[in-house]
Design brief:
mainly alpha; Amino acid/polyamine transporter I
Length: about 475
C-alpha cells in the first residue's frame, strides 16, 4: 500500500520542551495581534469591552488547551486530532477531519498567512503585476489566477521556500521557527514598553468609550451579539493553538512535554495579547482605532506606532508583521503535513504521502502535496472565502476533541494519563458548550456559508469509500 519501509526513514523525536513551546507561540502569533483590535473596537465601541473579549477568548482557548492536553498526553503520535479521533469516534470521523484540514482549513490558513506576508512586502516594495487585460482573465467566472500576480507569486514562493526548509528536517523548520518567534516576541514587548512609556497615551483613553457608544445591560441581546462578533475576531488571532499535537511523534518525552507546551504556550500568548492590546488602547483613543478600521487600508498596529515613532515606527511594525507572518506560515506548513502523513499510513489518503524521507526523516511527499494545494488556493484567490465558510468547522472539531475527554475516560478508563484536565468535568464541558453554541449560531446567522462549508467537508466522502475499497482489494491481492 505505502512505499516499502526499506526505502524510507522514520520520524524522529528531536524536539524538546522549549522548541514545542516556541512552536505553539509561533503557530498562534501571526497577523491577528496587529489587526484585530480595530474591528473589535468598531464592534464594541468600548476599550474595556475590547480587553474583556481578548481575555475571554484567551480563557476559552485555554479551556480547549487544557482539555486537549489530556488527550495529547495519552496519545502522543504524529497526526494530532486525526489520531485522536480514530480512537474516539472511528476512522470515518477522523478522515473527515483530515480531509477538511487538507482541502481547506490548514491549507487555506497557510495560503492566507503567506498572502498577508506578500501583501505586507508589497506595501514596502511594490511588486509588478500583469497587464489589465491578462489580470482580469477569469476561469468559469469564479477564479482570477492572474489578478495581483506579483503578490501571488511571492506568496507561492514563500510556501515553496519554507516547504524546502521543512523537507530537510524538523530541526531545520523548528529551529527557524524558534529564531523568528524570539525576534517577534522581543519586538512586540519593545512596542509595549515604548508605547506605555513615551507613547503619549493616557488612562482616560481606556476609560472613555467611543462617541457613538450606548450603555446596555449585560442581558441585552444586542450587546451579547456584539461580544460574540468581537470574540470571533479574537479567535482568529488565537487560531493554531492545537497544532502542536500534529507533530507528537517528533517531540521528546511527549506525554510530558506536549501538555506543558500547550498550557504554557496559550497562557503566554494570552498575556502578550492582553498587554499589546492594552497598549494600543492606551496610546490611541478608540474613536481613532475605529477610524482605522473604517479606512480599510490601515493596520491598527501601524497607526498606533506611527503616532509616537513617526514613519520609522510604521516601517518597524510593517517589517514585524512580515517576520510574524513568515514564522506563522512556516509553523503551519511544518505541523499540518503530519496529518496527511498519518492518514496515508492508514490508507486513507494519497499513498505517496505515507513516504518518510530516508535521509531527512520527514514526511517529504506530504509536504510537497500540501505546498502544491496551498499554491493552487493562492492562485485561485478563493482561500479567504473558503476559510470564512469553514471557520465554524474548526470549532466542530475543537469541541469534538474536548468531548473526547469524556469518551476516552469511558472507553479507556485504565489507560495511563500523565496529565488530567484541571477542573474536570467542568472545563471540557464548558468548552464543548461554547463550541456547540458557535456552530449553531453560525448555522442560524450564515446558513449559506455554513451549508457550503458542510458540503465541502462531505465532498471527501467518495474518496474515503474509494480508498477503503482499494485497501480491501490490495489486502485480498496480497493474500
Amino acid at each position: 500500500m505505502a512505499v516499502s519501509s526499506k526505502t524510507q526513514g522514520t520520524l524522529v523525536r528531536s524536539l524538546g520542551l522549549f522548541s514545542a513551546f516556541m512552536l505553539i507561540v509561533s503557530s498562534i502569533i501571526g497577523s491577528g495581534v496587529f489587526k484585530k483590535v480595530a474591528p473589535m473596537a468598531a464592534e464594541l465601541q468600548s476599550p474595556g469591552l475590547v480587553l474583556l473579549c481578548w481575555g475571554l477568548a484567551g480563557l476559552i482557548t485555554l479551556c480547549g488547551a487544557l482539555s486537549n492536553a489530556e488527550v495529547a498526553g495519552m496519545i502522543a503520535d504524529s497526526g494530532g486530532q486525526y489520531v485522536y479521533f480514530r480512537k474516539m469516534y472511528g476512522p470515518l470521523f477522523a478522515y473527515l477531519y483530515g480531509w477538511s484540514c487538507f482541502a481547506v482549513i490548514q491549507s487555506s490558513a497557510a495560503a492566507s498567512i503567506a498572502y498577508v506576508f506578500a501583501q505586507s512586502f508589497h506595501s514596502l516594495v511594490p511588486l509588478s503585476g500583469l497587464p489589465p487585460d491578462v489580470a482580469q482573465v477569469s476561469i468559469a467566472g469564479l477564479f482570477t489566477p492572474f489578478d495581483n500576480f506579483g503578490v501571488k507569486v511571492l506568496a507561492i514562493g514563500l510556501i515553496w521556500t519554507l516547504t524546502a526548509v521543512n523537507y530537510r528536517g524538523v530541526r531545520y523548520g523548528g529551529g527557524l521557527s524558534n529564531l523568528v518567534t524570539v525576534a517577534v516576541v522581543i519586538c512586540i514587548f519593545t512596542v509595549v514598553l515604548l508605547g506605555l512609556s513615551i507613547g503619549g497615551g493616557a488612562w482616560s483613553h481606556i476609560e472613555t468609550p467611543a462617541a457613538g457608544y450606548v450603555s446596555r445591560s449585560w442581558t441585552d441581546a444586542g450587546l451579547i451579539g456584539s461580544i460574540f462578533g468581537a470574540l470571533l475576531s479574537a479567535f482568529w488571532a488565537y487560531e493554531g493553538w492545537n497544532s502542536l499535537s500534529f507533530i507528537g511523534g517528533e517531540i521528546k518525552s511527549p506525554h510530558r512535554n506536549i501538555p506543558m507546551a500547550l498550557i504554557f504556550g496559550v497562557l503566554f500568548v494570552m498575556s502578550v495579547y492582553l498587554l499589546v492590546n492594552f497598549t494600543y488602547l492606551y496610546v490611541m483613543p478608540i474613536n481613532e482605532l475605529i477610524g482605522a478600521h473604517q479606512s480599510k487600508n490601515t493596520i491598527a498596529a501601524v497607526a498606533v506606532v506611527q503616532r509616537f515613532m513617526g514613519e520609522g515606527g510604521g516601517l518597524f511594525i510593517s517589517v514585524l508583521i512580515l517576520v510574524a507572518t513568515f514564522g506563522c506560515t512556516n509553523t503551519t506548513l511544518l505541523m499540518a503535513s503530519r496529518i496527511y502523513y498519518a492518514m496515508a499510513r492508514n490508507g486513507l489518503f494519497f499513498r505517496t504521502a505515507a513516504y518518510c524521507h530516508p535521509g531527512y526523516n520527514t514526511p517529504s511527499n506530504a509536504l510537497l502535496l500540501q505546498a502544491f494545494w496551498a499554491s493552487m488556493l493562492i492562485l485561485s484567490g478563493s482561500f479567504d472565502q473558503l476559510t470564512d465558510m469553514l471557520i465554524f468547522a474548526s470549532f466542530i472539531f475543537y469541541g469534538s476533541t474536548a468531548f473526547g475527554v469524556f469518551v476516552l475516560r469511558r472507553k479507556m478508563p485504565d489507560a495511563p494519563r500523565p496529565y488530567r484536565v484541571i477542573g474536570y468535568p467542568v472545563v471540557p464541558a464548558l468548552f464543548v458548550l461554547f463550541c456547540a453554541a458557535l456552530v449553531i449560531i453560525t448555522l442560524y446567522n450564515r446558513p449559506r456559508e455554513a451549508s457550503i462549508g458542510l458540503a465541502l467537508i462531505l465532498a471527501g466522502l467518495p474518496l474515503y469509500f474509494y480508498w477503503k475499497r482499494k485497501n480491501r482489494v490490495d489486502r485480498e491481492v496480497s493474500v
